[in-house]
Amino acid sequence: MVQISSNLASAEVLATIWIQTNHLREQYITMGRVQASSKEWVQLQGKFLLNSEPAKAIAYLEGPPAGIDILVSSFLMHPAKKPSPSSAPTIENPAFGLNILENSNLFDGLRGWYPLGSCSLNIATGSPHTLPPAAQESLGWQQSLSGNYILVTNRKQTWEGPAQTLTEKLKLFLTYQVSAWVRLGSGGSGAQKVNVALGVDNKWVNGGQVEADAHLWREVAGSFRLETKPSNVMVYVQGPSPGVDLMVAGLQIFPVDQKARFEHLKKQTEKLRMRDVILNISGGSALDRFCGFCVKVKQTYTSFPLGSCINRSGLDNDDYVAFFVKNFNWAVFENELKWYWTEPQKGNYNYRDSDDLLEFCKCHGIQTRGHCIFWEDSNAVQQWVKELNQNDLRAAVEKHINDLLSRYRGKFQHYDVNNEMLHGSFYQDRLGKDIWSYMFKMAHQLDPSAILFVNDYHVEDGKDAKSSPEKYINQIVDLQERGAPVGGIGVQGHITYPVGSVVHTALDALSILGLPIWFTEMDVYSTNEFVRADDLEIMLREAFAHPAVEGIMFWGFWEFMSREQGHLVDWDGAINEAGKRFISLKKEWTTNVKGHTDREGQFKFRGFHGTYEVEVSGHSRKTRQTFTVDKGDSPIVVEICL
User: Fold this and answer.
1) Which of 621, 619, 613 minimizes the C-alpha distance to 594?
2) Which H or E run contains 509?
3) Residues 437-476: tens digit of each pLDDT
4) Which of 168, 240, 382, 413, by CA, is between 20 and 30 Å from 155?
């Protein structure tokens, strides 16, 4: 229990543990955090994991600004108990595809709708008669809209808009897709954010967000899910500045049958990721040729990049290493390559951790992505960098990129050059618009073999108007016009409540640029590991079946590594349902076949791209041979002489 002694109403208090290994490696781990009050005691709790037995360990409290006292009534640390495993939720009568909103098409005036706040609602005509694209793809049929829309006027707060109560209409653990047409009316100029939101027991839930203007109807596409029983749920449309009229048409909220797309995605995957193979087998005895040779084909390597972030402390955990090496063929370092890690204080360098991780990957034949050279989020910039004047900052930027890429030239296949440029602008604000393209040009000059990526979040889920596919495309085109050699599009994939059609629509939009798309930091979230497994399967199938996607990276797989309730493997090494689903999909996407040759001495099959080993045996002899199935439309022919 903690409290602060201060004139401040509250301050964040963290419980941290410092450890030192037998090799004198140091690590700071946040065990828990809480917003502490000056008026009452609050409980600070959390969990942490040590991957090896430390030589030294010190636990302490920190966080509030200097001069603020931390009061502690008790401080206990004990081995964590593993929670009971969750069971698969049972959802009765999900009514997939059925809009739960009353009078959504506005055939009956404003029945079911009410104004949130002091705004006024009226019915007008002139909106689209078709569903927005993402809704069309999910529902699979063309439902026409009435052309009526709600006109919201006299708005005095950003949150004011049309609303409905949904409390009794929602089912737990069921994913709902959100779709609507929106447009700004009079009173505003330029583009403004419009958001379909839910008030769930006085908590805000984002159902989808778009940047709208007064010229065109824009689609809001998003999703949500409830995992605890609410007392009250209200949906409302909000966002523009006070005084700006809002137009809303065809709002749809419907439960999604996530598995309905799977058969389609399987067919797309087989077409995109597989190729026909003909094994021509010659030699052997007449009896062998008459009876047929026995053929066993085993895929030993999958060429599609499937990886995860790893960290240095994880290498001290044998189970962690074993799972990673068995299941992934690419790696990205969680923090160890970031500037705040490699040079936390000016001139104080730490490349030891990234060197260790690179050596580990080299030993296991793992290819690597470099994440990241710079990061536009000011919260990820060291204090000493923030304090530099413009000239010194430019010099520091040039020195850092020179040091990093000269040291690791040719060792990283990709670089995320400047992370999250849709959401941050630390370097651009201080060094001008051209600094972004300069970073790309310099990186290419220093390591021409590396593919240079942009990388950002919420691009694929409709939840953030800052990072819509349209805005991402515009940013990439602008970089290219300034001479930046952008070679790939990073879609992070930190997603909650994924809907396949929404993800697919975003990928289709991005693919117009003709650049390879990678999911660079994929993770999904649910308190229920069966639901988490379903979400993961949705994301993996959508990505693997899309022709523009050329790689998938997880943002962790071990508990305490990825975001909370996003892991595949529990802290004790037990593979949970999400991990089992991942392994099952990997098995589905691996080809192992056996049989006998036909009368022409041929053995035909269709296999996933990758490396294979074939064993051919007759009555008196046996041979083994390796071959590769790469991309192509015509069958690949492999000659084997027994």
Assistant:
1) 613
2) helix 500-510
3) 999 999 999 999 999 999 999 999 999 999 999 999 999 9
4) 168
State the residue for tokens 């040759």. 597
DSSP states along 466-482: GG-HHHHHHHHHHHHHT
| pTM exceeds 0.90 for this model | yes
Q: Give yes or no for a contact between 210 and 465, defined as CB atoms under 8 angstroms apart.
A: yes
Comparing CA positions, the residue from 29, 16, 48, 23 lying closest to residue 353 is 23
Tokens of 166: 């949904």
Question: Does the pLDDT of residue 482 top 80, yes or no?
Answer: yes
Nearest to 505 by CA among 468, 534, 552: 468
Tell me which residue has tokens 């590396």: 450
CA angle at 464 for the pair 460 and 468, rounded to the nearest 5°: 55
Cross-strand pairs, 204:
199
Both structure tokens of 236: 């409302």
Exposed (0-12), middle (13-18) or buried (19+): which is 127, by Cβ within 10 Å? buried
Name beta bridge partners: 18. Answer: 28, 58
- Whether residue 123 has pLDDT greater than 70: yes
Phi, psi of 187 (to 5 degrees): 100, -10
Cα gap 480→278, rounded to integer Å: 43
For 577-625, write each residue's pLDDT tens digit: 999 999 999 999 999 999 999 989 999 999 999 999 999 998 778 999 9
Residue 132 token pair: 């927005």
In the DSSP assignment, the letter for residue 338 is S
296 contacts 132 by C-beta, under 8 angstroms:
no
pLDDT for the residue 78: 84
* Average pLDDT of the chain to the nearest whole number: 94
Measured CA to CA, the distance from residue 440 to residue 485 in angstroms comes to 6
Alpha-carbon 225 to chain mean position: 17
For the chain, counts of helices (H) and of strands (E): 14, 31
Q: Which residue has the tokens 């083994």?
A: 624
| Local structure of 160: helix, strand or coil | coil
Q: How far apart are CA 355 and CA 411, in angstroms?
A: 11
CB-based contact 441:483 (threshold 8 Å): yes
Give the C-alpha separation, 272 to 264, whole Å.
12
Q: Which residues make beta-bridge pairs with 276?
A: 606
Query: Quick check: 366 and 329 in contact, CB under 8 A?
Result: yes
What's the CA gap between 357 and 355, in Å, rounded?
Answer: 6
Q: What is the pLDDT, as a whole number, of residue 362?
A: 97
- In sequence order, what DSSP letters do the residues of 414-453 get, joined into one string? EEEEEETTTT--HHHHHH-TTHHHHHHHHHHHH-TTSEEE
Closest CA to 61 of 26, 11, 27: 11
Known catalytic residues? 420, 521
Rounded CA gap, 450 and 405, in Å?
Answer: 10
Strands 2-5 and 69-72: antiparallel
- Beta strand residue intervals within 256-388, DSSP E: 274-282, 294-302, 306-310, 330-333, 367-375
Is residue 124 over pLDDT 90? Answer: yes
Per-residue pLDDT of 55-100, as tens digits, reads 888 999 998 888 888 999 888 888 888 888 889 999 999 999 999 9
HSE of 557, CA atoms in CB hemisphere, 13 A:
32
- Kindly state the DSSP code that residue 84 receives in the 8-state scheme: P
